[in-house]
Amino acid sequence: MPIEFSVDQANRLVRARGRGTLTDEDVFSYQREVWSLPEVAGYNELMDMSEVQQIALPSIDRVRDLAKLSASMDTAKSDSKFAIVAPADLAFGLGRMYEMYRDLQARSTKQVGVFRTLKEALEFLGLEEERLIPG
Predict the structure, then answer these.
(1) How confident is the model at residue 79 (pLDDT cuts 50, 70, 90)?
(2) DSSP per residue over the chain, as a string?
(3) Domain with 67 in it: what CATH number?
(4) How far is the C-alpha of 98 from the C-alpha of 61, rounded, in Å?
(5) Which domain range does residue 85 map to?
């Protein structure tokens, strides 16, 4: 699977990592599969795109569609955060578009941040790398 994930219960964090070629269907499947799990409602999220070599996106509209789907799955009155680690320019740009579209969704309760490094993303989430559960 191009997106692997683990749940760090101690830190209330879903950690995901993209690898290889990432398609829009990979991302939509991840969103539906993970965020329909009741035990992760209100958790923070860390998506690491460092190992993604190619993004196969049929249309920029899919970024907007993903933001809309994601916001529709948010837990009401949650103050969770979603950090995207995107060192490559394309992933970073798409992440920033997602952040903007997500902010425009009335149902969105997650604060999104896009970062070039894991260290910056962890700071945004209020976490320290050495305190993370391996996963």
Answers:
(1) confident
(2) --EEEEEETTTTEEEEEEEEEEEHHHHHHHHHHHHT-GGGTT-EEEEEEEEEEEEE-S-THHHHHHHHHHHHTSPTT---EEEEE--SHHHHHHHHHHHHHHHH-TT---EEEEESSHHHHHHHHT--GGGSPP-
(3) 3.30.750.24
(4) 10
(5) 3-131
**End-to-end CA gap in the chain:** 15
Pairwise CA distance, residues 67 & 53, whole Å:
22
Backbone angles phi, psi at 116, to 5 degrees: -85, -25
The number of distinct structural domains making up the chain is: 1
Q: What is the pTM (predicted TM-score) of this model?
A: 0.93
Q: Which two tokens stand for residue 13?
A: 């964090």
Distance CA 22, CA 53 (A): 8
